[in-house]
Amino acid sequence: ATTLGASAAASGRYFGAAVAANKLSDSTYVGILNREFNSVTPENEMKIDATEPSQGQFSYTNADRIVSHAKSQGMQVRGHTLAWHSQQPGWMQNMSGAALRTAMLNHVTQVATHYKGQLSAWDVVNEAYADGNDGARRDSNLQRTGNDWIEAAFRAARAADPATKLCYNDYNTDNWSWAKTQAVYSMVRDFKSRGVPIDCVGFQSHFNSGSPYPSNYRTTLSSFAALGVDVAITELDIEGSGTTQATTYGNVVNDCLAVARCLGITVWGIRDTDSWRASGTPLLFDGNGNKKAAYTSALAAL
Ligand code: XIL
Questions:
Q1: Per-residue pLDDT band at 189 (split at 50, 70, 90)
Q2: 126 close to ligand 1 (CB < 6 Angstrom)
Q3: Is residue 271 very low, low, confident or very high in pLDDT (cuts 50, 70, 90)?
Q4: Where are the catalytic residues (predicted)?
Q5: Mean pLDDT to the nearest integer, 51-58
């Protein structure tokens, strides 16, 4: 096939992009989105500060714009994200203890209910593990409500939306030899053994000099899949340019295709100028919307 989405679909997968609602009026952006991608992830619009800006007051306008655009184009939507230490609204940042636990679970229930049956997957919990070598949970107001906060969030999401795949999503979990990867692996194994409802693990895969694409990436994906969960590459971007970057994009695609339970790949933006990265050229299209060598390599690997 001649596009990323159609080529991924040939093996039952998707190729997605993070989308910002305020760019849906940019015709170059939307032209590429509609032509190349068959899945979207709202870049910020489903985060806690966007969907519950005041406690108990839910706001879905921008997220719903993305969902309705995706539906009109036959694209899937990955929901991102229900529970996270970052991009919390001010009211939540200031909460703790039992009140925060109740507020977090209410948020999960309300937002998952609003989108019930409409999404392919939810990143229920994002980035709950610390960086570094101790494999510890990240310290956060949510973690301080009790170590069981993650499973509580997954149970609430399942109760609200039983049909949508529920994912744990994180970064720096790509290298099989890193402590953070092993810590998340142990959590997923524990959840599966105790019947905590988890269906998938998302690997953000923001590759750069500090956390480069690892040669054991395929081992990581297949090892998690062997626990009985699906895996997905959820926020891919690769620092660099030219042939080196293109080769790495091809390797990532090959690794997903080699793992039967790898559902698909999402890049974190469309053009280099859409990237959340302050500088660099980490994506598949240049600032003018032209296909880069990285695009050609990714497509050829699909
Ligand atoms: C980023 C967005 O791309 C930015 O627009 C925003 O300012 C900050 O968040 N990990 C995640 C994403 O899970 O939600 C982050 O998205 C990038 C890192």
A1: very high
A2: yes
A3: very high
A4: 235 (nucleophile)
A5: 98
Tell me, yes or no, if 235 is annotated catalytic: yes
Instruction: Check 36, 43, 235, 239 and give the catalytic one.
Output: 235
Residue 58 three-state SS: coil
Whether cis (ω within 30° of 0) applies to the bond prior to 81 is: yes
Amino acid at 177: S
Distance CA 281, CA 268 (A): 12
Q: Give the C-alpha separation, 10 to 302, whole Å.
A: 9
Long-range interactions of 181-187: CB distance < 8 A, separation 24+? 181/220, 182/135, 183/129, 183/135, 183/136, 184/129, 185/223, 185/224, 185/227, 186/135, 187/150
* pTM (2 d.p.): 0.98
Written as six digits, the tokens of 249 are: 């994009």
How many angstroms does the Cα of residue 43 sit away from the middle of ligand 1?
7
**Mean pLDDT confidence for 174-194:** 98
Question: pLDDT digit string (tens) for 95-113?
Answer: 999 999 999 999 999 999 9
Pull the structure tokens for residue 57: 């007051």
E strands, 142-300, are 165-170, 200-203, 206-207, 230-238, 262-267
